[in-house]
Sequence to fold (438 residues):
Amino acid sequence: MESFEGYLDRKFEELKLLNSCLSDPLMLGRPGSIAEVIQTKFQLTALLRAAHEMQGWNATETAWSSNARPSSGSFRFRYDYQRADLEVEGPSFYALESHRFRQTIYAASGMAAMASLLLALSKLTGGAEVFALPGSYGETLELFEGYAGQLRLIVGSLEASVSTSSCRPRILLLDSCISSRDFADAISAQDTGFDLVVFDTTCFASTSTRVRRVVRWCRRRGIPLVLIRSHNKLDTLGAEYGRLGSVSLLNNGNESNLPKTIDLELLTNETRNAIRLLGNGALPAHFPPYVGEATYSNLTRRRIAAILRNGRASSRILASHLTGVPLQLNLVHGLYVTLGSHAPLDEAAARQAAGAMSSELSAAGFPIRHAGSFGFDFAATEWFHDPTADRYSVRVAISDLPSEIWSDLMQAIRDWWLDFMSHPTALTSERPPQPCDT
Fold:
């Protein structure tokens, strides 16, 4: 468990790292509350972005100035008109050996990266079969179903995909949102028959052992691997620094065994071309300048460890009192849980419940917000749709708050949810939750 004072010490180190990236650092004092941590971090993040624009005033969208040398920390950039040919030199976000990377291509967001790769695969593979496991990220599945008619999306168990016989290229879409059991089954499979693995690592820390396990699994099986990532979740120390995504192609597979329709060189070129045509080029200002620093790696590991500890505590608290309620407590990433109801929720009801719960508990003094993402310094609630079960729920994103405060918050969430299920039309608790000193 982490004490409140230990939490403040760790957060002070995070704030000092952000502050050190400014050319004119602020005079920072050790924060005295969670609210101060959150406010100071977002202020520093805004100052970093503003400083980037002021210092790189001649590195515009059209790259008109030959004197422009755009950079962000250890990252260096070179591009022509509209960043369509953006070249990035700098540290990797992943804790993997540099020789494993064939190419890394950056895009304006994680979904921009996925959409560009999808278009490239559609063009190169035609009728390829894409297998996704239950629980995969809903917007990714929506993207495949709605905008990749040439690809055949199959959502189901890994056993079903292995037993499927087809002469078409076979692609595994491995998502970091699936259940722990499905993830373990996937990376222990002996005979897959997949020609390519696309692994969305967004919900795993870039240093996660699970990322390395997938890399080793593909290497042993001789399967080429593509890593997709949204970097404005876990790679920004709890503040959304900017929208940034990437496609990393790894030298894992035996390319001589690849179908002629999947050529990694062509896939790289077509992905770059799709980014250019869609206007999905990454912004240099969105590259966090502290990535690659030893202090950053250490703080990120400590931060993720605290989130995972709180996630395990959340599962225990909710499971012990919400028996029989549709819950998702054992997702492989451990970053959030979902709360369902005995009476099925539609999108509007789930959205309203997420907003009401965060509003009431925040008013009671808890560090919780209604925010449509995760990885913040506060708990975040949002409506959630499970496309596999076609069920709506409320997602509670775990934070790295002090252990005791997080336990109090989860008990308040549990009690609020029990009241909500008893009176789903009221959306307010008659009994106010106990306040929390933040």
Observations:
- Confidence is low (pLDDT under 50) at residues 428-438.
- The longest helix spans residues 294-321.
- The chain has three domains: 4-55, 73-286, 296-422.
- The longest strand covers residues 379-386.
